[in-house]
Amino acid sequence: MKTMQIRILNGRTIAAREGESVYKTLKDNGVYLVASCGGKGVCGKCRVKILEGAGRIESSGKLRKRDIEENFVLACRTFPEADLLIEIPEESKLVIGDKIAAGKSRNLLEYLHSVEPLLSPMVRHVSLSLDPPTLENPVSDLERLKRALADRGLEGMRFSHGFLVPLARALREAGWKVSLSFAEDMQAVSLSPADKGTRYGIAVDIGTTTVVVYFIDCTDGSLVDVGVTYNSQMRYGDDVITRIVHATEGGGLQELRNAVVEDINDIIKPIMEKNNIIRDDIHSVVISGNTTMAHLFWGLDPATIREEPYIPTLNAFPRWKAGVAKLKVNHLAPVYTLPCVGSYVGGDIVSGVLASRLHKNAEIALFMDIGTNGEIAVGNNEWLITAACSMGPCFEGSGIRHGMRATDGAIESVRLDPRSFEPTLGVIGDSAPSGICGSGMIDAISELFFAGVIDQKGKFSRDLTTDRLKMGEEGPEYILHRGDLRDIVLTEADIENVIRAKAALYAGVSVLLKEVGLSLDIVERIYIAGGFGNYLNIDKAIMIGMLPDLPKEKFSFIGNTSIAGAYLCLLSEKMRKEAEEIAHKMTYVELSVLRGFMDEYMSALFLPHTDIGLFPSVKDLYHKDR
Ligand code: FES
What is the structure's pLDDT at 606? Predict the structure, then answer.
């Protein structure tokens, strides 16, 4: 086999193998490119520039003519045939492993106390004082421990091999005065000196894009630290479907599982070091994620999730042991996974309903988690119905020419002067813009629509005279930012993608409400969750017809409810029971088989909707502006 090298400009030199794409070679050597389609040659995000050498180019997919002329190739469709020198442009570099600024939206402990004053973590503790062995009292260490437990009314404790191995030394080092930690199923977890008071737990939200860990002191429920990173599974694709496909390819499932487990371990390691905490003192773990993420974490083949009739292997997960899950905490720590409802409504939504308390109130409320999928739940303390609609990853930057996630350099807000059509941009991190994120797109489309730059179908007006509009290779485009190296534009295809996504969400809400015979005005509260929800401008989202036109005071942003639900479950048995009840009680509706969904969807493919009467506030504003 021919061996070659790939040299990265200002970077490493990597050995390449014949027949392996540039993308795979880089990935296998820890150099990650944005690969929204998972290396299938369709997203056009893995562009690299060949400066020297030659390769076999299988396809150029979405690359523009100018890119090709400048020697850009798709790394996933290019196979080295000689040594290569390549340049990786900034926008093709996948930022993973980097810590993301972590925020906690509210005081969760206060919130927990308001719904459940008593802490009841998954692991409890009992202090024991054992009589040291003597020649006259020669019973074994384990028997001695069992007798001490029986004296405290604790019978039937189970002891694993992993617990027994260090038992003799632990008892002696502690001078026979110990604290035994045990799980709800009476499984002994750890033995420590009686005076050791603090125990920890971690609540984990495995999102398709990010992994969030709350490091909790379980003795008082306080938050020790928060860690966030991008989900490293993004190396294999942006959305759940691409990852499911990857999981079915040789070794892919294990790669995906290892990626997310490493993310969790990488987050907790520096937190432990900083706070002087040893891994044996982390006694419990709660995992919340969508059904695919939960399956991947468990190492379960998710293939059937995407095949009709869309059945997951399981919705209710047994308790797992951290050691078996390969989490670097106490290896006997129980791992609780939030139950899922169906293939596309997972534990993250159960967490969301739990945290919003929708299931406890008499008022009818709507819960929406907006991300790659739009997950919707409607109901109150008597009934709950849920569905998911595929919005595509456009709000996370995929499928958008200059789309990116909401990180530094992303345009997150846009204002347009209605006379000059000149934009004012808000950029995350106040840096030079390098792309546009979901909230920026919503702002931009709403502003372009109201300024008359685009029509109801999202098409650019052909009679405006502004140099902000130009004809690109794929049709007209609006220049948001003029850069030295490249302009950042919004194309008609980008706008069409956003309109499709918002139409799917709106149609999902409409059809779900119709399914239970309710109209929108019955809904008294709307909870919006998801990382995206933190930045969403509600007025603008209504103006483009993404959210229903209801009074603004009915909307509540509740941020990342997946992690909030995981936190509640980590500390409260009552919350864990409620989570099980929610999952059990929720009726899951498969929107694609519902009559009327397609009609609703087609009607929503306009700004804001074909029936503008459904958006009275937008109608008023629209006519006032004309
Ligand atoms: S085109 Fe190469 S990863 Fe999508």
Answer: 95
| Cβ 214 vs Cβ 13: under 8 Å | no
Instruction: Please report the pLDDT score of residue 624 as a whole number.
Output: 66
In the chain, domain spans: 3-92, 123-193, 356-393+498-625, 403-487
**How far, in Å, is the centroid of ligand 1 from the Cα of 497?**
18
Fold classified for 123-193? Ubiquitin-like (UB roll) (3.10.20)
Q: 35 CB less than 6 Å from ligand 1?
A: yes
Q: Please tell me whether the peptide bond between 193 and the residue prior to it is cis, using omega within 30 degrees of 0.
A: no
Contacting residues for 448 by C-beta, under 8 A, at least 6 apart? 416, 454, 478, 490, 495
d(CA 298, CA 254): 10
CA 103 to chain CA mean position, Å: 15
Contact 74 CB / ligand 1 (< 6 Å): yes
Give, for ligand 1, the residue of 25, 26, 42 to mutate: max count of ligand atoms closer than 8 Å to Cβ.
Answer: 42
Beta carbon of 94 within 6 Å of any ligand 1 atom:
no
Q: In this structure, what token pair is assigned to residue 256?
A: 């995906």
What does the alpha-carbon distance between residue 254 and residue 258 come to, in Å, rounded to a whole number? 6
Residue 45's pLDDT is what? Answer: 83
Q: Give tens-digit pLDDT for 3-47.
A: 799 999 988 899 998 889 999 898 888 788 888 787 888 888 889
Which stretches of the chain score pLDDT less than 50?
96-105, 533
Q: Would you say the CB of residue 337 lies under 6 angstroms from ligand 1?
A: no
CATH code of domain 356-393+498-625: 3.30.420.40
Q: Does a cis peptide bond (omega within 30 degrees of 0) precede residue 309?
A: yes
The residue contributing the CA closest to ligand 1 atom 1 is 41
pLDDT, position 216: 95
Q: Which atom of ligand 1 is nearest to the CA of 33?
A: 3
CB 393 less than 6 A from any atom of ligand 1: no
Q: Same CATH fold, 356-393+498-625 and 123-193? A: no
Out of 76, 236, 239, mutate this one to test ligand 1's pocket (max ligand atoms within 8 Å of CB): namely 76
For ligand 1, whether the C-beta of 47 sits within 6 Å is: no
**What are the pLDDT digits (tens) for 37-75?**
878 888 888 899 999 998 899 988 878 888 898 899 999
3-state secondary structure of 386: strand
Inter-axis angle of helices 347-356 and 291-298, to 10 degrees? 120
Query: In what helix (H) or strand (E) does residue 529 lie, and over which residues does it extend?
Result: strand 525-529
How does DSSP classify residue 461? P
Ligand 1 pocket member 124 (CB < 6 A):
no
Residue 75: the pLDDT is 94
In the block, tokens 């920890």 appear at: 200
- Give the list of residues 6+ apart from residue 356 with CB closer than 8 angstroms, or none: 365, 367, 527, 529, 558, 561
Q: How far is CA 479 from CA 36, 439, 444, 463, 486, in A?
A: 24, 17, 11, 16, 10
36 lines ligand 1 (CB under 6 A): yes
Q: Which CATH number fits domain 3-92: 3.40.50.2000, 3.20.20.140, 2.20.25.90, 3.10.20.30?
A: 3.10.20.30
Probe target for ligand 1 pocket from 74, 88, 239, with the most ligand atoms within 8 Å of CB = 74
Mutate which of 26, 43, 57, 236 for ligand 1 pocket (most atoms within 8 A of beta carbon): 43
Q: How far is the CA of 570 from the centre of ligand 1 (A)?
A: 39
Closest by CA position to 76, among listed 42, 39, 50 = 39
